Each structure stands twice: as structure tokens, then as C-alpha cells.
Amino acid sequence: MELPDSAQREAAWKVVRxxxxxxxxxxxxxxxxxxxxKVETVxxxxxxxxxxxxxxxxxxLEQDPGRAVVASSAGNHGLGLAxxxxxxxxxxxxxxxxxxxxxxxxxxxxxxVRLELHGEGYREAETYALELADRDGSRYVSPYNDPxxxxxxxxxxxxxxxxxxGLGTIVVPCGGGGLLAGVTLGLEGTGVRVVGVESEASxxxxxxxxxxxxxxxxxxxxxxxxxxxxxxxxxxxxxxxLAHGVEVxxxxxxxxxxAMAFSASKMGLVLEGAGAVGVAALRxxxxxxxxxxxxxxxxxxxxxxxxxxxxxxxxx
Length: 316
What we know:
Elements: H1 6-19, E1 25-27, E2 35-39, H2 50-63, E3 69-72, H3 76-88, E4 92-96, H4 102-108, E5 114-117, H5 122-136, E6 139-140, H6 147-163, E7 167-173, H7 178-186, E8 193-199, H8 204-211, H9 236-243, E9 247-251, H10 253-266, H11 273-283, E10 295-300, H12 307-314
Parallel strand pairs: 2-10, 3-4, 3-6, 4-5, 7-8, 7-10, 8-9
Antiparallel strand pairs: 1-2
């Protein structure tokens, strides 16, 4: 797979600007001086992944009108594609692991998509989705290893660069690395420091960066379910991070839960585990604000957390 070219990135920008409002940038003195958060939780699906969903579905219909799209997703990627389908008139199938967040499955059921629950984990769901795509002639859209998805996520960087002329550091939640790659490419040549944060229960990207290649890992249970799982063989996101010297750090489950509770009680923001890892990294001292006094921005990437889990986190 190739990285998105300038034409793909411009096409992604146009479709994102057509359907999505600019998300707010809010000062966060609770996290340190000159720190702000970009609130992607106000997206219509509750997650930044709607950017990549719109870009991929739009590109698919442009290249092959009427072609269906299939994806495997823990929830937010599927929601992004479902939203895109509702706006652009596409047919979408989403394969979700049986253990996916109840909140995300419930949200998916509100869209006119074909929803299939298959497999205990993401790998089984992905294999089944690839089989469906091969059988039906649909386009399989990876949540991160796809040029149009990466182009869609890069729109966040372009948007943020317009909001913060003095951007110094951006803190990016990282699972498969689609957002990390998009942000890195979108800020290429600007001198902005990009830091990825993942759960220590699923350190797939940081392990790959240390090894210089994708390495299978043992994935432990994590409240940051949207970041969990092994990387696809040949995922281009690793190469982007390596080529640009991006650092990816990990935070503990306890720190993620604490960050979710802190965000709700002190910042008035509901975050799912995957969306809270950047807050966790700053609060735990894993990531420090920009040393040059320029703006540090933490991406708050998703709000789709099951009420039971949120209540548990808040009352721990």
C-alpha cells in the first residue's frame, strides 16, 4: 500500500469540510501551562474516525460508483464509515468483534448498515471482513492501513495548524497508527513535535518502532479498546513513524482510568479509554509540555464509552 498523495489529501480535505464542522480547541490549564485540547468528541459519531470514513467512502464512490465498502472495527471506524454512507449514499458492511463496546454497537445500529458480529477479537473480525470483501467484490477499508483513511485523518492536522500558528507539540492516541501517520504527514516540514501514546496493555506501535519492523505482541485486556490489537503485516503507519522519528510512549490502565475520571469531573468532558490516553500521559508525566513554551495540544479522540464502564471509572 502507498501513502496518500497530495491529490488524495486534498480530496479528503474537501469532503471533510463539506460535512464536518471545525472541532473546538479549548485551553486546558489543568494539564499544564500552554496546553490545550482539541475536542474531536463533538464529531457527529463521537470520534475523529469519521474523517477517514468520509474520505474513504467518497474516494470509493468517485473511483467506482455503486461499489460497496466493508470494514472490521471495534466501533468508531465502523461508525465513521456508516456516517459517510448515510451522507454519500454508499453500501457499508461493518464486522464487529463480539466483545466490542456496547455503546459503539448500539450507535452502529442507528445507521442503515449491514452489521455483523464475528469473532472474539479484532483479528477474527478482520479476517472475516476480508473474506466478505473478496467474495462480494467490496472494498475493504482498514481503520489505519489505507491511504484514503490516512488522508482523512491528516485533515485534523491541517485544521489544527490553522487554529494554532504557534503549535509546538501534539499528543496523539495511537493504536494502528492511522491518526498518528495522518497527523505526521499533515505537519511534515513544520517542526512540530508529534508524540504518540498507547496503552501498555497493547504496545504494538512502540514495539514495532523499537524493533524497526512489525512484531506480534500479546494483547492484554484494556479500557482503551479502540487502540488494542496487533498491527497488520506491512502496515505503512510504522514506516511513517520511523521515517519522521516519532516517539510512541505507553500509559498504564490505572492512568487511563484516572484520566477518564479526571476529564469528566475536572474538565467536563466524557472520554472513552482510547480518547483519554493523551490526558493520562500528561497527568502521569510520561509526556511533558513543549519545552520551548509553544502550544501543546492533546487530541481527545472519542467519547463512545459504555455507561456502565464510565460509572465504574467515576466511582473507583
